[in-house]
Each structure stands twice: as C-alpha cells, then as structure tokens.
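Q: Structure tokens for this one, please.
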Amino acid sequence: MISSVIRTCFPAAAKVVADKAEDINKLNVFPVPDGDTGTNMSLTLGTVVKEVQALPADASMEDIAKAITHGSLMVARVNSGVITSQILRGIAEGLCDAKNQEEPTPADIAHAFRRGVKVAFKAVRKPVEGTILTVLRDVSNRADKLEKSKMSTMEMLDALVVEAYESVARTPDLLPVLKENGVVDSGAYGFATFLEAFVNAAAGKAGELTDFDPTVATDDAKAGVSSKVQIELNDDWEGSEYRYCNEFLFHAEKPFDPDEALTFLATLGDCELVVGSYPDYKVHVHSNEPNRVLEYMLGYGQIFEVFIHNMDLEAADRTAKIAADKAAEKAPKKPLGFVAVAAGSGEESILKSLGVDVVVSGGQTMNPSTADILAAIEQANAENVIVMPNNGNIRMASEAAATACESARVAVVPTKTVLQSFSAMFAVDAEASLEENAEAMTEAIAEVRGGEVTRAVRDSSASDGTPIHDGDVMGIQDGSIDVVGSDVADVTIELINKMQEDEEGDSLTILAGSDMDDESFEALIARIEEAQPDLEIDSHRGEQPLYPVIFSIE
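A: Here is the predicted structure, written as tokens:
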C-alpha cells in the first residue's frame, strides 16, 4: 500500500539527507548563501516525518498527503525549504490519485511527478535552469517516457534515480555560477539524494547511497556521473543586491490575491515566494526593507514565525567556516587531543584554556548523542583522544563513540562533573601514552568531591528523609541530596560547611550558573570566605543552566 511505503521509507530517506546535510550545505552557491540548503531540506523533511508519524496507523493516503503538505510548509525555510515543500506536496497529491493504492503502477508514478512539477513550478515566479526544479522536471519527463514500458514500478524508480543524478551532473552546464565554482546545484543534489534514499529503502536497502545498481540499459549511468558530483568548497561569493532574507507564515483575514502580493514583493527585492492556499501561506523574499515587507502583509492578515536573516553575515560566517575546514584538513594530526562536554559558555572557555580541543554542548536535560561525540573526536584531529563526559548519563554514549571511532585511539575518563575535568586536565603529561594519561586523569578525579545547588522540579525527599517540595533549593553532594532550603546562597554555604566537616579540603572551585547574577555571586563568595577562611577559593562564571551554583572541593 502506498501509504505504508511512505510511512516506512520517508523517515529513512529523511535521515540520509540529515546525515549528508553538511555536504549539501557546502555546495550552496545559488542564488545567494541565505542559509544552508542541506540544513533547510533536512528540517523540512524531519518535520514531515513527525507529522506523518503522528497519524493513526490506518491513516489514508489523503491524510498523509495533508500531513506532508502542512508539515513541510509550516517549517520550510528559505527558497530551498519552500520549494522542497511544494515538490513534496505535489507528488503526495499525485499519489492520492493512484487507482490502485495497494500497488502503484508506473503510470501512477509518472502522474505523481507531473503533479509535483506543476505545483513546484507554480510556486516560483522565475524558475531558473540548473536547479532542483530542472532535476524534478527531467525526472518527470523520464517517467512519462517509461510509464508505458514493460518495467515494474521498482525498475522504473531505479531508472528515475539514475535520471536524477544525470540531471544533477548537467546543472553546471545550465547555470554559469555553478560551473565557475566547480560544483553542482546544492538543492538538486539534495533532491537526488532523497529520491535515491527513498527508493533504496523501498527496495530493502535503507540508508544506502553507494553501489546503486540500476536496472536499465545504462548500467554505469550513476558511476559515470559520480565523478562530476564532487563536493567542492566555494568561498568566493561576491554578495547579493539584497541583504535580508525575510520569511514568515501568513494567515489572511480578508480577500487576498497571492499574485498581487508577489507583484508588490518583487518591487522590494527578489526570490519572492507566496505558497499555500487561502487562508494560510508561506512568504519568502530577499529585500533591504523588511519593514515594508511586513507592513504590506499585515494589511491583509496576521504574520507569525518571522525569520529575518542577514545574508551578508551568513556568507561571512560560511566563508570563515570553510577556511577553518580547509585548515583542519591540511593540519597534521597531533599526538594527543581532548574532548569534553560542557553545559555553559563559561565552562567551555575554561576547558579550552586548559587544553581541551573540542567542547561538546550538553549536560543535564540535553545529553549529546554518540554521533555528536564521535564527530567531536574526529574534529580533535589527533592520533589519540581522551573524552571526558562530565555527566554519568553521557558516559555510555562516550564509550560507544570511542568504540566506533576508526580515525584515532580513544580513551574515556569517567568524569561526572565539569569540575572533575578541570582537575583531570592538570594531570596530563604530554610525553606520556594515552593509557598512562587516562590512568593519571582518572586518579586525579578521585580526589575531587563535587557539590551542586539547584531547584526541585517535583516533590521528593532528601537523603535523611527531609521532605522536598517542588521549587525547594537542594544541595547535592556527589549525587546525594544532603541539604534542603529556600535560598540558593544559604543552601550553598550549608552544603560546603557539611562537606568540610565530613572531610576537610584545601581548595574550592566554584562556578556561577546563568541564573545567578554577578552581584549575587560576589556576595556568595564573600560569605564562603567568612565561613571557611582556610579554603582557597577559585571562582568563575560557568553559565551552566538549571544549576545556579556548582563547586568542587579538593
């Protein structure tokens, strides 16, 4: 059944595009670098997946088409995302017309692509050759020629994937800016990637993108074009006449003519799009006058989900990133590198000052994935890498990443707090082996006792049975709730005093969270100095969320 195939294959294909988003981003040279094509397409596809998965198991193809249309349009960003949303809408609507919903015929597939072409081209006032629209049209034309052949539906889909890649390879010949930069069109490449991933998933090869085996006469078709589909970096963008990319959702509250709106928007800029159906639309335009764009649309209804991007700044950021990537590729691997997880900007700055190469954003309620940590290990560009998870919940993901890494030897030092990783970094010996350093760092963190102060989010009880109510301030020592109160500073002082009574330490390292201002933090330090005059205090702003104070005693 068509609906079940979509529910199975769409998520698999969307994941492939998400995995390749950065590669697609690097191709982006047209029409202007207003965001990243791969990221935009991935966000659009990902939202569709969520909308479709939220439908009941017996949802019809019509229900799925509506979910695809709504989900893709609501989240679509900039040209690449909006056009992708219209392609998806058109093809989904076309599949609703299939006479046999159990097993679509080649004729049904051809009809769906024709519908996709009609809807997508209608959304763009000035279609440009050599883009995703060209590839869509070429695939549709190929489907028209094959619909009356004796091919099976799967054989036809295989042939359409080959056509998609051949069309992608032709994009530089149709669009001079692509040829000048030695790349294919990013949106076109993303579309071909999605199509192949979807077809492979339907054939039981979910996630695969290599060794595609076409069942048409041109067996080497994809192999022949693969050398042309090279991902090269373009860092020589000359800029655009218009600075701001404006996009938002619009709900009409009075008679509204999309064509009339497009005509007006064209006087303010270019790349104008108004897609959807009354009363809900997605609007996109590049203009130097965002205020006039918004004022005009407000005259007809409500606007929401407004995003205004400065494309000049985006282009500069992209160029800087490309330069950094190039430099990293050329840099030789160093003997030893370090990766750590941190929850705040202050924590990140301290870790980098201590020699940590890559800091992964994460912590309580926002644990990074194995893939995030693996990417950080590779980014460290070292022959040996030590990972510090800084949270018990992240240790398993770190160990999984260490096992999966093939580019370096990796060890995990089981730090439970960022403060432990500070002490661990002081134990590093640049001349020692990976194993020796991991052992020394692990021994160093054993001497660190940690304290955290935060607010309860539900009723509970402390380690001694004291009742805890939602909103109470808790003082936590190495996982045990030992102090309960109503004031952050009071609980911090009481917890430090208790830990000193249990085992006297010489030094205290303390970090202020994002919820504690400088004045309150300075007042707290003064109280600690008065309560514990023998403690050497090292205070910093950690900017960690949820925990106004974290500290360690050694």
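A few notes: Residues 153-174 form the longest helix (22 residues). The radius of gyration is 28 Å.
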